[in-house]
Amino acid sequence: MTENFGCLTCVQVLNIMVLLGFMLNYALRVNLTIAIVEMIFDDKSNHTVSAVANLTDTFNVTEHPEHIEQTRYHWSTKQKNLLLGCFFWGYVLTEVPGGRLAEVIGARRVFGYSTLLASVLTLLSPGAAAAGFGWIVALRVVLGFLLGATWPAILPMASKWIPPMDRSKFMSNMMASSLGAAITMPICGFLIAHFGWESAFYFTGIIGVMWSVAWFAVVYDSPAQHPRISDSERNYLLKVLPQDSGKQHTSVPWRQLLLSAPVWAIVITHGASVFGYFTVVNQLPTYIESILHYNIKHVVIIYLRVYRTLEFANPIDDFLEQLLKSIT
Predict the structure, then answer these.
(1) How far apart are the first and last CA of the chain?
(2) Which of 8, 68, 137, 297 could, after both became Cys, cross-link 12 (CB 3.0–4.6 A)?
(3) Residue 260's CB: how many other CB atoms inside 10 A?
């Protein structure tokens, strides 16, 4: 077949699906950070009325307390922090193997099935919490294990679809996917305020299943495998991106990598960046609710202000990268 997706090329469809997929990736991991505010009994219920009033005036928000009958748990602060952090126990285990697995069985399968299974687990999260604290912790560890494989898995696919001159823009779009957290917060905040904390997991889980179905319908590992790509686009990509000729893959130069100063500079810089980012993502809602004593609606408003600042840097970074390339 030579038909295409309307005016969109298959590369553009891939870009859109990858962006939405990584936005979903963030949504599936941060839904707990906002839901946990309402999942746990607040022993310090002496909310500061003046503080809430000041925030209401600042953001022009009218207070309409919602009284939702929902299950709450008597989890300690230690248990709450354990639950927020256990996601990363599984996450770090698949950061390296995920890319290699994608090379062997295909990025389409790794990325698609990891997201699909993570979405199903998200739908099961309220039930796991009801079953016991250990169950929800185990579920979050497995969730991290699945989502950790998605980031490295997409790189082998990019090497077969994205021309070299467009790869920096492709990576920039991947980084902009943290918008998923910024979008998830207000939606989940609204749902939690009106329908209870369980709705945050049901909403993100259903969206994840829907995305997974679309992913397997429109995305393929290479132009040669795509049944609906136009002849002109396939020929162009095969020309600018030589496909695998069947030769054996060279082994990874682990020794050179481990002794490379630039590699360690990237690892340390990225590690510090991720540490700061996820400290904000995981702890800010709890801090706003427990220390500043604002309700769920105000938590969302402050969170959005933080994300507006964070996302403003992404297009600037991309512009500076392109500028440096042009002068070197």
Answers:
(1) 43
(2) 8
(3) 13
The 3-state DSSP class for residue 40 equals strand
Instruction: Extract the tokens encoding 110.
Output: 């790794």
* Beta bridge pairs of residue 73: 40
What's 242's DSSP letter?
P
Task: Give me the count of residues in the chain.
Answer: 328
DSSP secondary structure, 46-87, as one string: ---HHHHHHHHHHHT------------B---HHHHHHHHHTH
Close Cβ partners of 32 (under 8 Å, ≥ 6 residues apart): 83, 84, 87, 125, 140
R_g over Cα of the chain: 22
* C-alpha separations of 275 from 178, 270, 272, 279, 284 in Å: 15, 8, 5, 6, 13
Nearest to residue 133, comparing CAs of 63, 169, 99, 83? 83
Q: Which of the given ranges, 53-57, 111-115, 227-231, has the highest pLDDT on average?
A: 111-115
CA distance 159 to 156: 5
Domain count, the chain: 1
Please check whether residue 218 lies inside any domain of the structure.
yes
Query: Where does the pLDDT of residue 68 fall: very low under 50, low under 70, confident under 90, or very high at 90 and above?
Result: low
- What CATH number did the domain enclosing 124 receive? 1.20.1250.20
